[in-house]
Specification:
This protein has about 450 residues and is an alpha+beta fold. It is built from 16 helices and 19 strands. The chain has three domains: about 90 residues, 2-Layer Sandwich (Uridine Diphospho-n-acetylenolpyruvylglucosamine Reductase, domain 2), CATH 3.30.43.10; about 120 residues, Uridine Diphospho-n-acetylenolpyruvylglucosamine Reductase, domain 3 (2-Layer Sandwich), CATH 3.30.465; about 190 residues, 3-Layer(aba) Sandwich (Vanillyl-alcohol Oxidase, Chain A, domain 3). Strands 12, 13, 14, 15, 16, 17, 18 and 19 form an eight-stranded antiparallel β-sheet that branches. Strands 5-6-10-8-9 form a five-stranded antiparallel β-sheet. The chain has a four-stranded mixed β-sheet with strand order 1-2-4-3, covered by helices on one side. Strand 5 and strand 6 form a beta hairpin.
Length: about 450
């Protein structure tokens, strides 16, 4: 990074909030995505929208790329730097500015950790449902930029469903606010929806106004085990067909079960082919009825055993089987590639079978887990990026999985975003006019192409 540019940035912020040395920049050269890395020119730590605006004006005048970053937990390469860019790291913007129980809202700066949002809501008997697997470390701004999902997405939806307003710094440095606390508001275009899931390519989100819900009165967690993954998938389809919408319906295959048990020592049966984590919440009577119905459906569709958690502590322990899946799998091989495809729920059985068939045909080690209740599958490749031959097989296998996903009416990403990892597939899902419209929006809001360039599409 040129000395005069660094001097301007120091004047806008302060020298102690700018990193320039290679050893300091290295942790910011990658995110949670495997095999993707690039060195930034500098990393800056703004503490307000005004400081971000100043940085963008400096970058815009020199046409310097700007990549926004929170905790760096993304899994599609969305916060991987562009070579010699400015990384705007927003972790110091970490204040919850307001919890409003009367309007069921919470206003937070973009660097607040996701779990801290729900903890703050809980102090008022309220609930922030979106719970990505990285919720203990991911930032709310990153969740909004990626439109993150989570284990409770089946019943409660994803991040988009809880954003009522936001402050955004545009590419030219202008600061805009979209939305309000009103439950109903149809004035003008829904601009906040444009920025949700935009992966930092259209503007930089600095504050979010979030919708909260009353905290559920009761919850029941069950674990069903199966001798075949197909039986688990059929159970999910049957539960949905019975018009039951649980809080979560999560699954792990045998590869993942064994890795989780070895890692976390939860007490999972490692001889089974698959397990379903089923959770219902709400009014105590409804919870009891839904739990009984789901247990019966699981038994009718091949469950070897259905175990109900005896208390809150055991429920948390069982839920941790799913929440630790990625960490457990990541211990097996040097490189872990966590993929993210979503299919219509009636195609789950077919898709699970296809993933297993692809793994066998290419002699690859794939652990599959995910949010089976909403059709979101995470086939996870356990490999070694130093083995070129195997990485070629991984790429071919992924190409086939994505192609079949689109063929059955699915999407290339359910919650991780497009970023760098999935952009080559975007044209397969979108028609030419649809893709052209995305590019027109980018060109209109960021004509100099300084905001996270090369992400989503070239």
């Amino acid at each position: 990074m040129q000395a005069d540019i660094l001097q301007e940035l120091e004047q806008a912020l302060a020298p102690d909030r700018i990193l320039t040395q290679k050893e300091d920049l290295l942790p910011y050269s990658f995110d949670g995505t495997a095999a993707m890395k690039s060195m930034p020119g500098c990393v800056v730590f703004p503490e307000s929208a005004g400081e971000i605006s100043a940085c963008l004006k400096i970058a815009g005048a020199r046409k310097i790329p700007v990549v926004t970053r929170g905790s760096g937990t993304g899994l599609s390469g969305g916060s991987v730097p562009v070579e010699d860019c400015i990384v705007l790291c927003l972790v110091r913007m970490d204040q919850i500015e307001e919890v409003d129980p009367r309007n069921l809202t919470l206003l937070a700066q973009t660097g607040v950790i996701t779990k801290a949002i729900d903890d703050a809501a809980a102090e008022h008997g309220l609930f922030y449902p979106p719970d990505p697997g990285s919720m203990k470390i991911s930032t709310i701004g990153g969740n909004v930029a990626e439109n993150s999902g989570g284990l409770r997405g089946l019943k409660y939806g994803v991040t988009r469903d809880y954003v009522m307003g936001m402050e955004v710094v545009l590419a030219d440095g202008e600061i805009a606010w979209f939305g309000n606390k009103c439950v109903k508001d149809v004035a003008g275009y829904s601009m906040r929806d444009l920025f949700i899931g935009s992966e930092g390519t259209l503007g930089i989100i600095t504050k979010v106004l979030l919708k909260l819900l009353p905290r559920p009165q009761a919850r029941r967690t069950m674990l069903a085990t199966y001798d075949s993954m197909e039986d688990a998938a059929r159970t999910v389809s049957a539960i949905i067909a019975a018009q039951i919408i649980p809080c979560s319906l999560e699954f792990l295959d045998q590869v993942t079960i064994r890795c989780v048990e070895d890692y976390a020592k939860i007490g999972l049966p490692t001889e089974v082919a698959a397990l379903l984590l089923m959770e219902t919440d709400g009014h105590p009577h409804v919870v009891a009825e839904e739990a009984l119905q789901m247990a019966e459906i699981a038994g009718e569709h091949g469950a070897v055993d259905v175990h109900t958690a005896r208390d809150e502590a055991e429920a948390t322990r069982l839920a941790s089987a799913r929440r630790t899946a990625f960490s457990a799998l990541a211990r097996v091989k040097p490189t872990t590639i966590l993929e993210d495809v979503t299919v219509p729920r009636d195609k789950l059985t077919e898709m699970v079978h296809f993933i297993n068939e692809v793994a066998g045909r290419y002699s690859l080690h794939i652990g599959t887990f995910g949010h089976m209740g909403d059709g979101n599958l995470h086939p996870t490749f356990l490999t070694d990026e130093r083995d070129r031959d195997e990485m070629e097989k991984v790429e071919k296998a992924l190409d086939e999985i994505v192609a079949r996903t689109i063929e059955v009416g699915g999407t290339i990403t359910g919650e991780h975003g497009v970023g760098l990892a999935k952009k080559k597939y975007l044209a397969h899902q979108f028609s030419d006019p649809s893709l052209a419209l995305l590019k027109k929006l980018k060109q209109t809001l960021d004509p100099a192409n300084i905001l996270n360039p090369g992400k989503i599409f070239d």
